C-alpha cells in the first residue's frame, strides 16, 4: 500500500518538476536574450528610419550586434502593451540590456543629427544638386540622376496635380526645374534619400500653389500651370521687387498678345548655361535658336519651353496679380532697378542713358 502511494507521489513530483521546467524555459530564454550583448561599454550609432516597423528595427538591432534577439523584442512589446518607436539617430550602448535600448528609442532619446538645406530663390536644379551634395552623403551626379529619372518623374506626375506631361518634353533640361519651392528644409541626417528631399520640396510647392488651384483649373488665366511656372521663373530672374515683378508680367502679356518675343536675356543665359554674374552673352548666343532662348529666331509670341529657375512665391503671385501697363519694354540697371518704356526708341534711349551714367553692367 505504502509503496503504491510513494510511487504515485514520485510520479506527481516528477510531473511538477517537468511542468516547472517547461514553464521556466521560455522565461529563462527571454531573460537571457534580453541581457546586454557586452559587459563593457561600447557606444554605437543607430538610425531608425521614418516609417520603420518594430520588427524591422528589432532585426536591424540584432544584425548590428546591439541586442541578442529580435524575437525577444516582440515579447517585450506584448508585455508593454505596444511600443511606438521614434525615427531618428540614436547613441546606444552595447552594455545596455534590450529593454533599456528599446525604451530609449520609444521615448525618442535621439541625437539631433538633422541638417538644414537652404535653397535660394531664383536658382536652378543644378544649384539645388550642389546644395544637397555639399550637405548630405549624396553626390551631385546622384541627385541629378534622380531628378532626371523619367520613371520616377511619372510617379510624381501621378502624385502632384501641378506636375503635368509638359515637363516630359524632350527639349526640357530638367523636368522638375521650376517646381521645387525655395526655402530652408530640415532633413533627418546626411543619409537622407534624394527622393525624400524632392518630395519634401514638392509638398511645399503644393502648399504654396493650393490657393491658386481653382483659378488654374478654371482656365481663366489663359495659361496652363506649366506656363504659369515658366512665366514666374523668368520674372523671378528679371525683377527683384514685388512691384517690378507684377509690371514685368504685364509687359510679357502685352508682348505675347502682340505676337512679339519676350526678348528676355535671362532665358538666353539659361539656354546656353552662361553664368549671369561672370559672363556676358555673345551675338551668336542671343540670335541662336533654342526652345528656351526668347531672344532667338522663331520665338515670337512664345514662352520658353519650361521654367529657367525655381521661382519664389512672390514671383508666382505676380502671374496671378500682374499690373496692367502700357509698357512693352523694360531694362534693369547695374543695381537692379527696373525701367519700363512703351516704344523701342524709348527703350534704346534708356539703355544709352544708363550706359552714360555708368549704370550698365560691364563684364571684365
**Helix count?**
15
Assembly type of the shown chains? single chain
**Averaging pLDDT over every residue, what do you get?**
93
How many angstroms separate the termini? 120 Å
Topology pattern, helix = H, strand = E: HEHHEHEHHHEHHHHHHHEEH
Structural class: mainly alpha
Share of residues in helices: 40-55%
**Count of domain modules:** 3
Strand line-up in the sheet with most strands: 1-2
Overview of this protein structure:
The chain has 364 residues and is mainly alpha-helical. It folds into three domains: 64 residues, Dna Ligase, domain 1 (2-Layer Sandwich); 96 residues, no CATH class; 137 residues, no CATH class. It has 15 helices and six strands. The mean pLDDT is 93.
Task: Please summarize what this structure is.
By secondary structure, this protein is mainly alpha-helical.
Question: Which structural traits does this protein have?
Answer:
15 helices, 6 strands, 3 domains, single chain, 364 residues, Dna Ligase, domain 1, two-stranded antiparallel sheet, mainly alpha
Amino acid at each position: 500500500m505504502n509503496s503504491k502511494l510513494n510511487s504515485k507521489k514520485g510520479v506527481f513530483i516528477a510531473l511538477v518538476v517537468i511542468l516547472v521546467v517547461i514553464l521556466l524555459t521560455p522565461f529563462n530564454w527571454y531573460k537571457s536574450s534580453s541581457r546586454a550583448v557586452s559587459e563593457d561599454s561600447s557606444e554605437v550609432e543607430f538610425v531608425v528610419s521614418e516609417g520603420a516597423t518594430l520588427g524591422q528595427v528589432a532585426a536591424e538591432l540584432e544584425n548590428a550586434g546591439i541586442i541578442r534577439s529580435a524575437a525577444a523584442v516582440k515579447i517585450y512589446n506584448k508585455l508593454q502593451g505596444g511600443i511606438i518607436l521614434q525615427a531618428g539617430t540614436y547613441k546606444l550602448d552595447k552594455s545596455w540590456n534590450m529593454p533599456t535600448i528599446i525604451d530609449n528609442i520609444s521615448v525618442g532619446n535621439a541625437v539631433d543629427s538633422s541638417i538644414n538645406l537652404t535653397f535660394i530663390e531664383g536658382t536652378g536644379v543644378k544649384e539645388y544638386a550642389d546644395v544637397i551634395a555639399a550637405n548630405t552623403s549624396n553626390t551631385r551626379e546622384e541627385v541629378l540622376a534622380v531628378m532626371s529619372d523619367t520613371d520616377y518623374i511619372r510617379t510624381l506626375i501621378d502624385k502632384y496635380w501641378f506636375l503635368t506631361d509638359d515637363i516630359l518634353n524632350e527639349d526640357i533640361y530638367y523636368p522638375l526645374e521650376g517646381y521645387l519651392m525655395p526655402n530652408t528644409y530640415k532633413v533627418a541626417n546626411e543619409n537622407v534619400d534624394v527622393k525624400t528631399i524632392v518630395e519634401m520640396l514638392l509638398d511645399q510647392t503644393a502648399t504654396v500653389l493650393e490657393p491658386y488651384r481653382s483659378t488654374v483649373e478654371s482656365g481663366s488665366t489663359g495659361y496652363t500651370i506649366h506656363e504659369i511656372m515658366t512665366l514666374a521663373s523668368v520674372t523671378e530672374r528679371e525683377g527683384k521687387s514685388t512691384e517690378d515683378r507684377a509690371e514685368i508680367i504685364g509687359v510679357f502679356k502685352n508682348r505675347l498678345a502682340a505676337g512679339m518675343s519676350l526678348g528676355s536675356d535671362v532665358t538666353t543665359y539659361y539656354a546656353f548655361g552662361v553664368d549671369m554674374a561672370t559672363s556676358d552673352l555673345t551675338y551668336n548666343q542671343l540670335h541662336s535658336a533654342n526652345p528656351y532662348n526668347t531672344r532667338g529666331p522663331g520665338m515670337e509670341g512664345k514662352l520658353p519651353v519650361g521654367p529657367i529657375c525655381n521661382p519664389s512665391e512672390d514671383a508666382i503671385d505676380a502671374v496671378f496679380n500682374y499690373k496692367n501697363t502700357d509698357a512693352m519694354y523694360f531694362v534693369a540697371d547695374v543695381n537692379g532697378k527696373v525701367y519700363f518704356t512703351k516704344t523701342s526708341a524709348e527703350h534704346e534711349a534708356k539703355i544709352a542713358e544708363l550706359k552714360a551714367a555708368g549704370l550698365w553692367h560691364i563684364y571684365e
